[in-house]
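Notes from hallway chat w/ T.B., transcribed later so I don't forget. T.B. wanted the structure written out for a chain they're using in a teaching module, and asked if we could keep both sequence and structure tokens in one place. Agreed to drop them here.
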Amino acid sequence: MDSSLRVAVTFPTRAGTTNPIFTGGAPHLEWNILGQDTTAGAAYLYDITSTGFVIQFANASSAALGLEYTAEGF
């Protein structure tokens, strides 16, 4: 978590390259926080691109949590 209370998640790249797996722009994303430390407060999607996404938290500068996601696109 950075000083702005954001967590960045990078999508995998195409096999054997550094090219993004999503070439048609940002994918459709479904995400969920698992086992969130309640001191982190509310979480929402801050940004999404073809290379990853950012979750913004309301309170804590650190938190213990799990994150699951499914991204679909071209």
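Follow-up for T.B.: The chain has one domain: 6-72. Might be a good example for the class.
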